[in-house]
User: Fold these one by one.
Assistant:
Number 1:
Amino acid sequence: MVIQTKGTARNTICIFGKKLFIFIASVLILSTAVFYISRLAPGDPLVSYYGDRAEKMSPEQREWAEEKLGLNETIAVQYARWLENALHGDFGISYKYKTPVVSVIGERVGNTLLLGGIGFLLIFCLALLLGIMCACREGRLFDSVVCKIGTISSCIPEFWFSLLLILLFSVNLKWLPGSGAYTAGQSGGWEDRARHLILPLTVVVLGHLWYYAYMIRNSILAEMRADYVLLAKAKGLTKRRVLYRHCLRNVMPSYLSIMAVSVPHILGGTYIIETVFSYPGLGTLTYESARYHDYNLLMLLCLLTGMVVILCNLVAQALGERGMNIR
Amino acid sequence: MENKFEIVGIRPLPQGEQEWQKKRRRSRNIQKSSVGAFLILAVIALGCLLCDWFVTRDPGYLDLQNCSMPPNRDFLFGTDTLGRDIFAMIWYGGRISLLIGMAATIISTFLAVVFGALSGCAPAWLDAVMMRLAEILLSMPALPAAILLQAVLGEANALSISFVLGITGWMSIAKVVRSEVRRIRECEYVIASRSMGGGFFHVLWKHLTPNFVSSIMFMVVMNVRSAIVAESTLSFMGIGLPVETVTWGSMLSLSEDAMLANAWWIIQIPGAFLVVTLLCFTNLGNCLRRRMNRGQSNL
Amino acid sequence: MRVTTERAGRRMKVFTERHGHNMSEILEVKNLSVSFDTPQGGIQAVRNVSFTLHSGETLAVVGESGCGKSALCKAVMKLLPASARLESGSIRVCGMDITGCGEREMHKLRGKLFSMVFQDPMTSLNPAMSVGAQIAEAVKVHEPKITRRALHDRVAELMRLVEIDRAEERMNLYPHHFSGGMRQRCVMAAALAGRPAVLFADEPTTALDVTIQAQILRLFRNIQRDLGMATVFVTHDLSVAAEAADRVAVMYAGKIVEIGTVEEIFHDPRHPYTWGLLQALPDFARGRDALYAIPGMPPTLLNLPKGDAFACRNPYALAIDYEEEPPLFCISDTHYAATWLLDERAPRITPPIVLNSDSSAAEAVKRGKEAGACMAGAADEAVLLDVQHLTHVFSINRRTVCKAVDDVSFQIKKGEIFGLIGESGSGKSTVARCIMNLYRPNGGIAPAEERQLHGETMPEKSKPRNAARILYKGIDTCDPVQFRKHKKMLRSTRQIIFQDSGSSLNQRMKVWDIITEPLRIQHVVPPRGSLRAEAQFQMHYVGLDEAYLNRYPSELSGGQRQRVAIARALSMEPELLVADEPVASLDVSIQAQIVNLFRHLQQEHGFSFLFIAHDLAMVKFLCDRVGVMYQGKLVEVGEAEKLFTDPQHPYTKALLSAMPKAGNRLAGPVRIQR
């Protein structure tokens, strides 16, 4: 027995190491791709640094400026230099904000995590709850109403839904603020933050909830059609017990793995909502950096997003493998 | 009474179900809601196609005297903050919105079929790599990725935006194509066909294509839907088509000004058209999926 | 014979017991009707069924698929899906009326009063839970306050009851660690946990191999004897029913058409459907050149015809059968049958059942015929297919390989029917696919390895000694060069037929398209003018109506689909036909139709035929020579008659003794009476 556990421990380390290697390799590939694509794209990065002055520059001035920003060399050299600096923790400065990229992102990342994190947790729990409730009442009024609402809400673009909410609650009724993360001038009050969060959070949650609830419902129903449920009932188990001990238990691994994959999706959804609500998070930042060719900022944002994507994928894969092993 | 107990043996029974009854049953199986969805969609599509005939105003004309007019007899749906007629913009804008949806779907379906079929026919290790790639791309948040690509491509036009949406939306179809190809390849009728000497192209044309086309049809229709959503989102954010190019999304990009003027019609009318169109697509897609599922469970 | 008397004695005991206490009547079902709501309309799955069950008794419910057997059991246990409705009737268990019980009351009764074992042991256990936990769960429902220790002991006890050794160890294993037979034992342990008074077994042995089936049947008998419970045993196989049951109920189209003790049903059947079923048993076909097949197909329960549902397949149908449903006539205390033939006004009919009592004469006839066939066949004794040292290895992953076929050699002569039998996973299908060049035989001893084995390089030996070779008409089809050279001939003269699984025909092609596919692939000019005419001809040939020409496979029944597959294979006029379990998924009566068709076509065309099956009786009936496969090896080959009467290999012996024989119970004279 002891030997066996040792073996599995070594196995775990082995698997973990492999995953880590895959992770680092993927991040490297990703950073190269993003670097090349962003430099090859049309657009003048000097504009983002110097604003309108860039257009009036003499050729000598341009050359000097490019040299200063390290833009005059080949892309490969630029990449190598960027990589070297990045390994030392220096990701360069933002052309637009003229401060280190890390600090620009650092200011905003909390806001996105707050919105995305709470949204994700809410979606996770509510979807499970709704899915189970629908599966229990398959074909009845509650189920069909939830499914109908889900279908309809999946057809409403998030940005338009946000607009409607703003129009209704902040323009007409004036109950809730329609933009920003806090009222200008007074940052810090929890109550204020919460009030600003309500509308964006509603959109995030309602936009994704139905899809996952529907998925949970369908996979529970598929389990309920399996033969072992009949045996469990023939043994004398109650319906509730069969549902929780058997069906839900079997559905959970795949649900967890799907939820892991969808972390980036939900975060990606918040990016758009952030721009509609002018919520100072990573979404607005990405949008701006893409528009103004703020390379260093864009690089780090892409890398962060990509890392989340790859990490979530690895987690999901691990979860899925565990589920498969049990079967 | 006596002849009732005579052996008559096997007699053909009157056919339990006549052919026309069967047909009627089949037609009843097609749901009313999907017929309704199809009709609405047809009206919208025809309206967009033939708008030159019945729309009198120029959608691009800035009528600065009549900015932000609420719906009235002159302007059926009102005017936007730049004084353009929303009624005209709806139809001309729908044209481009639908066009982009279709074009993006064609591009992504083409990519998906090629990628999926290659992956399905590839040896196991290559298949694993390709599917891994598709999965990672799939879990990328689609809209930010599209924003990034569009920003990189520069000033958008209908073609470039279709291209961007096409190459960000093919992964899920590719996965289905691949698993269908794998499944069908293992099917006994394909094995039988191969043992009779059916070549690769015979199997591809006679067996693979008809079978996976039906199973991806639903996803293709859903893809049109998500392409339209994505286009409108991009245009709304100002990264997609410029304001001068009228689409349902770019009409909504004026919403900030509209909000200040509290002009609900600028936001709600194009949005309503958008949502109704999307609903119709969803309904058609669901109908296709149900039909496909029924076909399989009939076995 | 001995078994029969023993059983009769037991039944006498039961009988006296029954009259001793009235309580022995455990289950009483009266006029039960159940219908399902489907989008196409209501399906009457169970119609007006009544029966009683006494303690310690086994009732076998026999019928073809879709006749409402399972629905009946599930209706009693109230396990039917929500679309089902109990229309009328009453159910009493142990003197308690449970007809009106809701889910709340039922889950208290299930497990304790009655329990159920299902058909497919692969799906009826939760894959994500250890078997011990699943059995423990069933115990705990009924004894919620049981201690851990006691629970553990009880689970081990239950597992020992169903004859699982090393129960303590195996408790913590998951279902995927077990084979099908072991899983079925686990299912039984879970079902027996609440000490039920009635056990429903819904085709518990259908998904299992013959030898395992025999073990499970024996286990059922033992447990029933030990626990003294009543069993309802649902099966489609009459010979299994004869082995397992005391009484038999024959169901057709949702109705019990005949019910009686085993002796009554097998020796004195009264309903034409029972006659048909009995005749369709290959045991009865001894000395004939065709199996009896009930004509037609079982009806869908969707819109049943007026009158007796069986009339349209009944050669003895009376005029009244087409107008009025027959009531259940009483023949004796225990024997009832629903047919107008039992009405006093009906003409007297001699049951058409020939038993093996006078089989010696028939046997002689057959021998003579066979001798004649051999004489005729002597002219082309030529070997058509010669399989030598065939080995095929599947690699599961990089390290483990699985030898599916291991050094198999046999020959098929021209015009011969060669049967290949063996359990699932014994490599039969792999052999078929290797012969058809779908797999390349990859095993044997690879040259390099052999060199290593011999320690020396052997350049003079170009081919290893044991190289797999499949010679078809003298052409080595394993050799790519030769194969390519004769590709067209090989592909048009060898054809394969698969088990009907719904995937053997392309769902999106019409029937005539499917039948003429090989012609189009090989660019053969259709001999009968157009492709359509060719399809028409072939359909006529395999007994399909022309009206099906433009249908899709999903509109056909299983038997019809298999006919289409046969027509497709025959359209190339093959010289070798390989059939991989062609009848395994069909109903008994349809199986007989298809096997008859094979025999008929083989006589007409004279092709060689490789018939792969796990059903010994069919092989015995159809084949000239038989090979037995066991774990990838061909353990015995021989003439069919000889192999079945005098098996040499221990596995063949085990296989033959495991075969359920209705004949055993049927020995003795048949009373032909009215």
Note: Confidence is low (pLDDT under 50) at residues 1-6 of chain A.
Number 2:
Amino acid sequence: MDWQGQKLAEHLMQIMLLASAVVAFVTGYAMSSFQMMMLIYAGGVVLTTLITVPNWPFFNRHPLNWLDPSEAEKHPKPQVAVSSKKKPAKK
Amino acid sequence: MHSFGYRANALLTFAVTIVALMCAIASLSDNLNTPSPTAEIQVVNINWFQKQTHGNDEVSLTLNITADLQSLFTWNTKQLFIFIAAEYKTPKNALNQVSLWDAIIPAKESAKFSIHTSNKYRFIDQGHNLRGKEFNLTLHWHVMPKTGKMFADKIVMSGYRLPEEYR
Amino acid sequence: MGWIGIGESVRSLNIKQSLFQLITLGMIVSSALMLWKGLICLSGSESPVVVVLSGSMEPGFKKGDILFLHMSNEPIRAGEIVVFKVQGKQIPIVHRVIEVHERQEMGEVDLLTKGDSNPSDDRMLYARGQFWLKRQHIMGRAVGFLPYLGWATIIMTEQPIIKYILLGVLGLLIITSKDERHKFSAAKT
């Protein structure tokens, strides 16, 4: 997964769970069946899990450009003293 | 970068939190219900009325109980626990409540009924104050929810009186 | 990227890290404690949440259900579900009040309880020679409940080894997670 994909997965998860909850509650209340509400919600949870947890390809549409090992050697490693996390991303 | 485990964990936590929220809202929805229960109790017979060996009065009654408690049920109701208590005053005690009979109503359909029964639990006083005693018969109900807050209420029926003499 | 240095840098980092972890743990524990004590104050009961341990209140309350308790100064009346402890016994019992005899002079009250699905009342459970429960025996009234969620507590009480395994796993997780933050993984997740 890439950064964009991660954001998408997280948002999808939250929205889908909330939507399942709302649909489940409204349906259960209308049908006067507590069990129906729980069943619909459980179904929603399973669906959300299938869509947002595994590492699907559509989460990787903005792949990161990892530096080639041979390129990395040409650039000096950062100093630990400043404890910076800057990536020497030059190609 | 979030891992598979991280996403699964986040999803599970969020899902469970949402369940707790749904249960709370379902419980709150019970407040929207406006029940209109009815009940009537007749003392058909005083079976016997004695002073026990340890000095306390005891009476056995046969009751006819008719009630319609269907309006108490909501989608979030698991069962209705009902009981009938005889309530009376004595010189020593400001209030006495003695449960005579109880029942569990599991579904709306069985909430409308008429029953002929003698008291399930013994009606024993703390002392010997029951002769000629006036008492109330109160039908109490406790709504036990599938989740959340329990409700309880009652109907008080007064005007009952025990005989003046033992028999 | 942030590589962990070697030598003294590692050691000093590790000490700072461990202290940080310790403080974080301390904060979590004290917040939990504050929350628990706050709940006790709010509910007026020394045990605001209990787990149902027996089947004597079925089908209303099953073993493993969680009950929320509240204790107010309102008089106790027949029909209320109360939690009480018998003198000399550790386990709290959750049953319904079926008899109330309250004295004229405010205060003293005699109570008799019974489990919904028990055939007879609780006199046999009380201490020897005790025929009634008094107000001081009552820990609280049940006001609300959550199904099934108490099973974790029951399992951990009946099989303490599970508690130790869980703690061990938790400890291991804390120790191993220390490295993740400074470990840069070049592999795609």
Note: Residues 48 and 126 of chain B are 18 Å apart (CA to CA).
